[in-house]
Design a protein that fits this description.
heterotrimer; A mainly alpha (about 675); B mainly alpha (about 100); C mainly alpha (about 170); B: elongated; C: about 170 residues; mainly alpha; 2 domains; 6 helices; about 75% helix; about 0% strand
Chain lengths: ~675, ~100, ~170
């Protein structure tokens, strides 16, 4: 075995951020910002370098061994034979999917850490922020490196915790702490499904380790379950997907993500765009064998993803807060990723995960730069005409917008196109027509995406200046913030080029790279040439849709700035529904939150707590008092009663001492 | 000869009467006298046993010695006890035992 | 009916009557005199058994010293007839049955094991006082000395208790 120092000690990748978190958490309060920076950045940076080295070693390893790398470090849970010899260990693994995830997490994470040193420079609780950020990195790396479901779940819960801590970073602000709670609670609901899925899988296959579980699935020879059949694969997959909807903000558990914008912008970039929300997609991709055995699950995933994509895009059309638009955009793009998984194009989904990480993180960071430049203003209606003033921010944001809209040759084009092609050519019992419908909705969403993203750019950077020069001093951000923007912009441009050769008949290198894990999506019923030309046609349609969106936004917001307001007035009910996010939050509050609060108040508090528990405790006290009261009467101070008691005592003593003698006499007396 | 049981039964009767007096009388001095009565009853049974027990040679006199000690102790107790009664009577202005009830909850 | 038995019953009856009188008399002085009767009867019973020294000590110490002390205290305190208070329900209702039960139990227990025949060797003879004194100063010398100490303490106690209050 060639020298594999990092692979042998794979735990070093997550451990470094954990160390950074602990050191900053324990000692950072007294340190100046520079030292906190050094600790946090070196932790993440070294982790990124270790990840690079691990990837290099893995590629060499794979050349030789042609299998995933897996190493067990120590036993965490182990039972004896009585419980089926169940073992869960701290096992880490590395395969091609992990390569993508770990590089995205550490790379983008590192860039965002650098950005945060500039963005958070004047904030209180500086050390706390970096401690939490490093803690998040630790859990996320555990999640992607885990070799079994239980360890993955540890990371899953941990990122939920880090998300809660970071969303509620400005905890003195009620809306922020409420948003943190909301995120955590909604996540928990999804986690419930995730856990049930894990239990089911364990019950059926007696293991939760990835390699063992998937091998057992193959070996068991259980048939794939068709549409409507609710066998083990369907139920387990749907339960796992329930967890994914919570973590990755799909219908119906997406409601926490827009509120999560209360957190600082780097948090939104890292957690709610690039990494944590993609954990759901990762889990679905990792469990693809389970999903592929169940048609129902795949359909559900595709439909939910597609519906969420459209749903969120429509809400994003009318939002005025720059971060909210990006939040709904994230929900929408995550929907695309799930759509890809649902049409059995897992490689495309992961590809979009990677490119989305680049341009979404860039979008958020650039938005943060804008907010920083505007001195804290987040409402786009009070911006405008900034393009000449904050040039670097403007250009990087423009690049990101072009990428997300899907214009070639930027990254978003290739990944989104792969997804739409996969949807169009999906096969299966309900394929064909169903796939076409999904494609149509996906295309419509692409149009809307292009529209609202360019709306964002035009409102923010172009047009008339809608703020007061005297109150807001627009200034460009420091290079600690601009540097990562530039890097991410470059990545947004070139990130998709690994798949570019497919356009002119070559190989899609990204899917090729992932092929050991996901079989490449085949367009059945079509020859290779026909498939290729179909792909080009669909690509052209997509570009046309994006262009249409761009032109519409251009016309509405630059040429005829009064038109949007007119549309809003003429379509008042539609506008209001969209503005109020389809009243989903209000619906949840009325149907779920209020009954729960009522039960807590009237049943659990008034009856269980006050009457039962307090009653019991007080009752015991009262009982003791009552007994004491009775017993007290014996201490009357009356000597005669004491004398009588002495006689009683003497009687008792005699009876006890002379019982053998007295016993037969009782018999005699009663006869 | 008088069987020992008769003495023992008499002793028990006297003891019981002493207990009755102890419980029912209210004058402290009378109660004290009932205690003396009980002691006497016990002395009687001691002496009765001393007559009945075998000895290595001659009389078994352990019981009678014991009685002597009991009498001495009774005397000492009477002396001190009556002193206390005098003090209590001065303090409470009454010889009714039921009036001496300060030690209560 | 042999003579000792008759004497026994007479003396026993006298003792019991005296005890009952102790219970029923209203004035403590009458109770004291009843007690003296009981003690004299018991002295006679001791004599019947053959314990002459004990009988003598009973009369001298009990009757002549302790009871005199009692009578003196009654006179000193000018004890009158008892007032009839009844604060204790337990004593009033439970006292008699309990006492009866106690008596019965005691009688039953003691007679069950008691030897029915006196020591044949010494039946009818008086216990020699010399032997008592020998025992007292040899085998029982420690208790003897302790009791003398006890009497000393009692005297001191009585003196302290009876002191006049320092005004």
């Amino acid at each position: 075995m060639p020298n594999q120092p990092i692979l042998e000690h794979l735990w070093i990748i997550p451990l470094l951020p954990l160390l950074g978190a602990t050191i900053n958490g324990l000692f950072g309060a007294r340190w100046p910002n520079k030292i906190v920076n050094t600790v946090a950045l070196s932790a993440t940076g070294l982790s990124f370098l270790s990840a690079l080295e691990a990837v290099r070693e893995f590629l060499a390893y794979y050349e030789q061994m042609h299998q995933a790398f897996r190493k067990e470090f120590f036993d965490w849970i182990f039972t004896g034979a009585a419980a089926g010899n169940f073992r869960v260990g701290f096992d880490l693994q590395m395969d091609q999917l992990t390569v993508v995830m770990v590089l995205v997490v550490t790379g983008v994470g590192f860039l965002i850490h650098i950005y945060s040193t500039g963005y958070m420079a004047h904030e209180g609780g500086y050390y706390r922020f970096f401690s939490y950020l490093n803690l998040f990195m630790f859990f996320m790396l555990i999640l992607v490196l885990a070799a079994n479901y239980v360890l993955l779940f540890v990371g899953w819960e941990g990122v939920g915790l880090a998300s809660y801590l970071l969303i509620g970073f400005y905890f003195l602000k009620k809306s922020a702490s409420d948003a943190g709670k909301k995120a955590f609670i909604v996540n928990r609901i999804g986690d419930f499904g995730f856990m049930l899925g894990m239990f089911l899988l364990f019950r059926k296959f007696n293991t939760l380790d990835f390699s063992q579980l998937f091998a057992a699935v193959e070996k068991s020879g259980l048939p794939a379950e068709g549409w409507g059949v609710f066998g083990i694969f369907t139920v387990a997959s749907l339960l796992l997907f329930m967890g994914a909807t919570g973590k990755s903000a799909q219908l119906p558990l997406y409601v926490w993500l827009p509120d999560a914008m209360e957190g600082p912008t780097p948090v939104s970039a890292l957690i709610h765009a690039a990494t944590m929300v993609t954990a759901g997609v990762y889990v679905v991709a990792r469990s693809h064998i389970l999903f592929q055995h169940s048609e129902t699950a795949l359909v559900v995933v595709a439909v939910v993803g597609c519906a969420t994509a459209l749903f969120a895009a429509t809400i994003g059309l009318v939002q005025t807060d720059i971060k909210r638009v990006l939040a709904y955009s994230t929900v929408s793009q995550l929907g695309y990723m799930f759509l890809a998984c649902g049409v059995d194009a897992f490689g495309a989904g992961i590809f979009h995960l990677m490119t989305h990480a680049f341009f979404k993180a860039l979008l958020f960071l650039a938005a943060g730069s804008v907010i920083h430049a505007m001195g804290g203003e987040q409402d786009m209606r009070h911006m405008g005409g900034l393009s000449s003033k904050i040039k670097v921010t403007y250009w990087t944001m423009l690049i990101a917008t072009i990428a997300i809209a899907g214009f070639p040759p930027l990254a978003g084009f290739f990944s989104k196109d792969a997804i739409l092609f996969g949807a169009f050519t999906v096969d299966g019992e309900s394929g064909g027509n169903g796939g076409h419908i999904l494609y149509a909705i996906g295309l419509l969403t692409a149009l809307l995406t292009s529209f609202y993203m360019f709306r964002l750019v035009f409102l923010t950077f172009h047009g008339k200046q809608r703020y007061d020069e005297h109150h807001v001093h627009v200034h460009e951000s420091p290079w600690s913030m601009l540097g990562p923007l530039v890097v991410l912009a470059v990545l947004s441009v070139v990130g998709g080029w690994v798949a570019a050769p497919a356009l002119w008949g070559g190989k899609d290198h990204f899917t090729l790279f992932l092929s050991p894990i996901f079989a490449a999506h085949e367009a059945t019923g079509l020859s290779e040439a026909a498939a290729h030309s179909l792909e080009l046609i669909l690509a052209g349609v997509a570009i046309a849709a994006a262009t249409l969106g761009l032109l519409t936004a251009f016309w509405l917001y630059l040429r005829q700035p009064g038109k949007p307001a007119q549309f809003a007035k003429s379509l008042q009910p539609v506008y209001k529904t969209l503005l109020n996010k389809y009243y989903v939050d209000e619906l949840y509050a009325a149907t779920v939150v209020r009954p729960l609060v009522w039960i807590s108040d009237h049943v659990l508090w008034k009856i269980v707590d006050v009457e039962a528990i307090d009653g019991t405790v007080n009752g015991i006290a009262q009982g003791a008092t009552a007994v004491g009261d009775r017993v007290r009467r014996t201490q009357s101070g009356n000597a005669r009663s004491y004398a009588t008691w002495v006689v009683v005592g003497a009687l008792v003593v005699i009876v006890i001492l002379f019982w053998p003698t007295l016993r037969p006499m009782i018999g005699m007396v009663t006869k | 000869m008088v069987p020992t049981q008769y003495y023992l039964i008499l002793s028990a009767i006297l003891f019981g009467l002493g207990v009755v007096a102890f419980v029912f009388r209210r004058n402290i001095i009378t109660i004290f006298m009932s205690i003396e009565l009980m002691l006497n009853a016990v002395n009687l049974s001691f002496v009765a046993f001393s007559q009945a027990m075998p000895a290595t040679k001659g009389h078994n006199l352990d019981g009678q010695i014991f009685v002597l000690f009991v009498i001495v102790v009774a005397a000492a107790e009477a002396a001190v006890g009556l002193g206390i009664i005098i003090l209590t009577a001065r303090n409470r202005q009454s010889l009714n035992v039921e009036r001496v009830d300060l030690l209560k909850l | 009916m042999s003579a000792p038995l008759v004497i026994f019953f007479v003396l026993a009856a006298l003792a019991v009557i005296g005890a009952i009188s102790l219970i029923l008399q209203k004035h403590p002085i009458h109770s004291a005199l009843s007690l003296i009767v009981v003690m004299v009867a018991l002295a006679g019973l001791y004599l019947l058994i053959g314990a002459e020294f004990v009988a003598a000590v009973q009369i001298i110490v009990y009757g002549g010293a302790i009871m005199v002390l009692f009578v003196l205290v009654i006179m000193l305190l000018n004890a009158g007839e008892e007032e009839r208070t009844n604060f204790s329900k337990l004593a009033k209702f439970g006292g008699l049955p309990l006492a009866l039960a106690l008596t019965g139990l005691l009688a039953a227990t003691m007679t069950k094991h008691g030897a029915s025949v006196a020591n044949p060797e010494t039946a009818g003879t008086l216990a020699p006082t010399g032997q008592i004194s020998t025992l007292l100063f040899t085998t029982f010398v420690y208790p003897f000395e302790l009791t003398s100490f006890l009497i000393l303490v009692a005297i001191m106690g009585a003196l302290v208790l009876a002191q006049r209050e320092k005004s």
